[in-house]
Amino acid sequence: MIDYPAGQQPPIRSGNRFDWAKNKSQPQQVVYGSRGMSLEEQLNQANTYYNQHKIAVIHKKPTPIQVVKVDYPKRSAARITEAYYRHASTTDYNGVYLGRYIDFEAKETKNKTSFPLQNLPKHQLDHMAACHEQGGIVFIIISFKVHQEVYLLPFSKIQTFLTKHTNHSIPYNYIKEHGYICQQGYQPPIDYLKALDDYLQTQP
Amino acid sequence: MIDYPAGQQPPIRSGNRFDWAKNKSQPQQVVYGSRGMSLEEQLNQANTYYNQHKIAVIHKKPTPIQVVKVDYPKRSAARITEAYYRHASTTDYNGVYLGRYIDFEAKETKNKTSFPLQNLPKHQLDHMAACHEQGGIVFIIISFKVHQEVYLLPFSKIQTFLTKHTNHSIPYNYIKEHGYICQQGYQPPIDYLKALDDYLQTQP
């Protein structure tokens, strides 16, 4: 048995989307697990992995910033000297997988028993509903930090919940029952497309 | 016959995607054509139109900005005091239409006879190729300002051109022959999804 360094997990791939032996062009990287990484960093690494291995093309959108003042010094790059963060009107991630449109938002919570819905502002829910209506594949990725678990929850399950409940949060047990657990590992740190495959298999 | 103000064109819709008479919720706007608008403004208005009428959900991505310094003054919003524009690693626009993933870049040129390929840097072509390979619908919108014409050129036609030619620009005649002209009008200012429909009809 191979002895992996603390915090590092062996590269496990289910299916044959990627043959490790053939992958000579990949630089050897020492990655000590994903413990120190934020959810965003883990997802960015997963997206880089999916992109490099031609599994999907999914990117995080840039943070929207309202630029107020710009200096144009001679012989150097334009320098923004006053700007403000704006609220995103859409979700953070989108792209293409199996020819389909993928759209999702990712959230971390320290809560043990539920996912507070204040994490999903109305304009994001509206955007998700619009994409869902157009036939896109829409979901949220929820990381329960205390449980060290990451779930993919399809937007349709959020809609169902919202029509039946007036709660301000989705219970952990609802997510455990209706969501799809994302394997965490070496590369990708969070294999959310594997969880998406599990969901898509249940779809007609 | 209705006498439209100079520069304003009548609302012509082919197909029945939108019934003007029923559209009571739309505020009455006086828009004097699209002459003064940049290509980006025209496309943003088209996207708002498509979104409001549930035809498609397509957005321009925020401009990527590298933030270096941020002030956090008391009782007011975080203020970015040093930041720089970064090069986009993807295209500017993406979204969902007919359940499919849509990805495109939009460019204006003052050139009469060709579209200079320096307008499409390698990393954007690579991104377009990757999305195309994943089954996305990928194209560029080219506005020839002198001709007052806007074309949708499918990525596959760009690929074909690039494999056969070593030119540094795509001739206007090639775009006229292999592209799809976009109707310009009142709302949407540029009906590029109509041009996309024309293209998709030719696809198996």
Could you give the topology of this structure?
The structure is a homodimer of 204-residue chains.
Chain A: H1 39-52, E1 57-60, E2 65-71, E3 79-85, E4 93-97, E5 100-109, E6 114-116, H2 122-133, E7 137-144, E8 149-154, H3 155-164, E9 169-171, H4 172-178, E10 180-181, E11 183-184, E12 190-191, H5 192-201
Parallel strand pairs in A: 5-7
Antiparallel strand pairs in A: 1-4, 2-3, 4-5, 6-9, 7-8, 8-10, 11-12
The number of helical runs of chain A is 5
Structural class of chain A: alpha+beta
Strand order of the largest sheet of chain A: 1-4-5-7-8-10
Sequence stretches where pLDDT stays below 50 over 5 or more residues of chain A: 1-32
* CA gyration radius of chain A, whole angstroms: 19 Å
Q: How widely separated are the two ends of chain A?
A: 41 Å
Mean pLDDT across all amino acids of chain A: 86
Report the β-strand fraction of chain A as a percent range. Answer: 25-35%
Largest protein interface? Answer: A-B, 40 and 40 residues
SSE topology string of chain A? HEEEEEEHEEHEHEEEH
Helix content of chain A: 25-40%
Strand element count of chain A: 12
Task: Give the biggest sheet of chain A.
Answer: 6 strands, mixed
Describe the oligomeric state of these chains in a short phrase.
homodimer
Shape field of chain A: globular
